[in-house]
Amino acid sequence: MIPRRCTLALITATALVPTIALAGSSKLTPLPSAMPKAEGVVVPSALSPELMQVPAVQGFTPLENPTALFKYYGFGGDGPIVPAANSIQGKDNTVEATKTEPDKNTYLVLEDQKGPDASYNYGSHFLFQGHEGGPNGEDGKPQGMLTRINLDADIAHRVTLMADETTNGTAIPVIDGSSWDPFAQRLLLTSEEGTKGGVWQATIDFPSKVEDLTGIIGNGSYEGVQVDPNGTIWLVEDESDKLGEVAKHAKQPNSFVYRFTPTDKADLTKGGKLEALQVIDSSRQPITFHDGQADADIKSQGMKDLHTYGKALKTKWVVVHDTGKDGMSPFDANKIAKANGATPLKRPENGLFRPGSNFAEFVFDETGDTNADTEAGEEYGGFGGVLKLTQASPAAAEGEITLVYRGKKAYTGFDNLAFWSADEAMFVEDAGDKLHSQRNALDSGYVVNLTADYSKEGTEPSRFLAEGRDSLATIDAGLSALKDTGFQNEGDNEITGIHVSDGDATVEGLLGAKIPTPFENGWRVFYTQQHGENTTWEVLKKLSALKTANQ
Question: Do 228 and 327 belong to one domain?
Answer without folding.
Answer: yes
